[in-house]
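Standup notes, structure subgroup. Blocker cleared on the adenosine-5'-diphosphate input:
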Amino acid sequence: MTPAHILRDRTLRRFAVFLALIAAALPAAALAFSLLAQRTAQAMLLERDGAVASALLAQGMAENDIAAALAASEVSGAGRALLARIGRTAATPGLLLPELAGYRQAVLPAALAAAGLLAALLLGGALVFARAQAARLAGAERLLRRYAEGDFSARLPRDAEGPLGSLFAAAEELATMLQAKTEAEHRARQFLKQTIADISHQLKTPLAALGLYQEIIAAEPDNADAVRAFAGKAGDALLRMESLIQAMLKITRLDAGSIRFAPAACPLPDLAGRAVRDLLTRAEREGKRIRLEGDPALTLWCDPDWTAEALGNLVKNGLDHTAAGGLVQVTWRHTPGMVQVQVADNGSGIAPEDIHHIFKRFYRGRSGPDARGAGLGLPLARAIVEGQGGAVTVQSTPGQGSVFAVSFPDGPDGLTEL
Ligand code: ADP
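Run returned:
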């Protein structure tokens, strides 16, 4: 961590400026102190000169001689010897005490006041800085505790720089991850709740009907017509429940990743034939046509069973939403980079308000007059295709029909690989 990085923190920068000011104040205080000491010493020496001059004048010494004596700067051996004889040496204890006491009185308080002021400033500044830092850390700690409780409404300051800024940024990164995880968990919980509610809702009606049919049959065991009719209805209800449960199980297994696709090179005519096989009788019964079209040599690299099921769901939807005389067309083609299978119908089309929702589980558009589906066909088809690396898209014009396109990326050898 470089000093430049450290000083990017605003509080640290202010504290560094404060320390620099204190550091600059120290020599200034020393200079002021020495000037004061010089002035005090000068006044003290003048006082001493005054006393000496007064005594010499009183003894009749000429003024010129006194002035010359006071201006002298050389110390002779005889002078030093005289001072020693009269006891004025540096070793004489308390010799100049009165004068020095005045000197100390003038200089010491000023020195102590200056040193005290600087020390107080230093301590006060350090305290203010420490408190500001502690307040920032306490604020951050409060926020982090709120994050831990799942409350992300307030965030750590983004303008913090320097070491604390780096720490905040790392904590924010962690908080974003935690928030994403919390939201994903919440969504998963909501989804599970919704799915359970949907399943129980879907099962409630056929179960209630089954109960009713059973009661009727039990009440009239000898009425062969009623028994036959309600046994048939019970069979229908059972079939509906079975297909719903099967679809749910498949989607759940696909979601959980417990389904392993077994890809193989599938000739597209075979695959499309398999997808529509179980629907041909129904189409004929309802007076609708299913047409398969495309390059007979085109091959798709995919799991044949699952992919045929996905395509079959799209064809079944086409039949569900076309009137008698309608056409459901399965076509396939090889475009650069991918193989695309289209399932187009000339039926009712999909309302714009439905089209963004039709791949959601249990979503059933409002168009179908006798909507008997559970809203699982498209999500299942999409899960199968996407689970193999493909994609499903839809285009529709209400009143004219819909086109579902299943695309698989092309493999390097011309086959579409997973
Ligand atoms: P289901 O068919 O069981 O209702 P799906 O998931 O297969 O459920 O389809 C969801 C909804 O999408 C349908 O209820 C319907 O409104 C709409 N839909 C799907 N395919 C078509 C289509 N080919 N034409 C018109 N609407 C369609």
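Discussed briefly. The CA atoms of residues 261 and 303 lie 6 Å apart.
Next: hand off to the docking folks.
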